[in-house]
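We emphasize that the prediction below concerns an isolated chain of 359 residues; any contacts that depend on oligomerization or on bound cofactors are therefore not represented. The input was used exactly as deposited, without trimming of termini.
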Amino acid sequence: MRASLGDLELAKLYAPPGVRLTGGARQLEVDVEVTRGEVAPGSAVRLTPASVAVRTEDITVRAPLGVVLEARPEGPRGHLRAEVRTAGKVEVSADRRSLPVEVGLLTVAATTSHRSFAEELSLAGLEADLRRATVALRDAAPWAPKDMTLAGGTVELSASVRDQKGQRSATAAAKLETAAVEVGDVRVGGDGSVALELTQERPEAPARGSLRIDLSTVGVRSGEATATSPLRLDGTVEVDAARNSARMPFRLRGPSGDVIAASLGQAPWLVRLGTGLLVGAAAEADGIVSVDGGGVALRVAQARAGGLTARGALRAGSGPVRGAWLVRSGVLSVGLRHTPDGLAPQLFASEGWLAEQLR
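Result of the prediction step, given as a token string:
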């Protein structure tokens, strides 16, 4: 059976509160065989893709959406699968800002425990796959935070999420090509990739996985100084949704001391005196980043760049940034304390001074 549909009148009845749907499918195709309440494998209902706008109070998403409902033989008793898919140009808009995204294929699907309507159907799995979504940074520029500028290049995203009977997994990856971010006088740009993997064994357990950031070129321009180098970060991620928290022990290799020195143009004069010790060496650091309801915390157990070593911590939340650092070069040392006005240096600071600041 084939039929034409002009609008999403039926779908509107099932839309969540606060969500409006406009648009509709052009063609409805039905090929279904049911025997004694059981749907035969190969049965399907298809809505061909058409432009649909999904509106909430804050945001509107316009995309070509298609729907497929089908019966499949896989599994002990087979299953029913409902899939929504989109490909092509997707537009996200809010507050008079618009972001076009070119999507290779995005599918969101749900499967049931069996394919018989003679028994109560239950949800057996949910999955979502984004095979490719490309965003031009010039188009994302209006969405950047205040005092940040996005320029040049593209970001290509892919992701996958699975939930099979409470066992959940997620992967996400981003590929950056000549991406550039400017904050004040500092410009950071480069090519590279970001990859995240998470697995949750039980709904009540934390999700655990890994994060890798691998940038082949990171460049910093501050005033007249310009420097480039590679950067790599490897982290072990733990996300606890029940406690609204996450933590990640990490190991950082790079950027080079030249890049760090170029980024210190706005640092206190006492800090800039040590930039000559950084040039030519790659930075190395081991630490932990944690996030909770109170904000973000960073603790570095040990960092090294050229002839300098450093350790310390900071915490950023709704109030001013708090924290302190101890920087050493041989027998010389300087402490840096975060204040509302920036970094305040302390000559000949010691481990005791750092411990006192971090209490």
